[in-house]
Amino acid sequence: MIVPIFEIIIDLFQHSFVRKAIIVGVLVSLCAALLGVSLVLKRYSMIGDGLSHVSFGTLGIAFALGISSPLYVSVPLVIVAAFALLRITENSRIKGDAAIALVSSSSLAIGVIIIAETKGMNADVYNYMFGTIAAIKNSDFYISVIISIIVLVLYIFFYSRIFTVTFDEPFARATGVKAKMYNTLLAALTAIIIVIGMRIMGAMLISSLIIFPALTAMRIFKSFKSVVVCSGVLSVFCFFTGIILSVVFDTSAGAVVVVTNLAMFLIFSLLGLVLNRIRGVI
Questions:
Q1: Residue scoring higher pLDDT (83 or 136)
Q2: Single pTM value for the model
Q3: In 3D, which of 84, 90, 99 has the Cα closest to residue 179?
């Protein structure tokens, strides 16, 4: 059984579009998982879902303007939306979840209307909504790889500050850490990762890469560092497995990746219950 699967994987790697999708997807999954730990702990995880809907709205704008690569429009607009959502959740009289729902549903509706009136709800739009690995252009590939690496470098460089702001923001402010700046950095990096991952995972499913790995790792691990490491490993594993399965069974890449993440979440939840009982007995 192992040999045929190994042969299938080797055969898949003969296709350039599969190689590109896996490289971009692994980088995006890793970035999303690392950022997701802080977002989940700070209860900002719904911002990722809101931004994924905003990214679809910006897709409609790009199509209306006749821009072949939506990244050039989506990245700056979604970053602006991330700043706006962050400010709303922190300062507005509207509750954070309500504000995110308001922005995300409005963006999705605007995107649907614009696309319906310009390009039409065709297969290309469907792929942006639910993901595909067969349509990554060379320009998008190189941009995605470069941006993902920059996000990883920034996260590693500011890791200690992000850790402090995640767990004790008042203490971070008291010690001179510019908490607002690092919250903004998290929001901006999240916006970028959502946009570049939209082509593979789809605008409707990309936020799962932020939420699932962090929640799954927390079923067993408790320290921030161990959760971050486990989350990153799980995200890459689930993406790679999901992509392979989606190609083998000729189905939606994003959906299979999400289901793979769900399976790992259930497995880790069960393991967590077993470990807690063992610890209780000891």
A1: 83
A2: 0.85
A3: 90
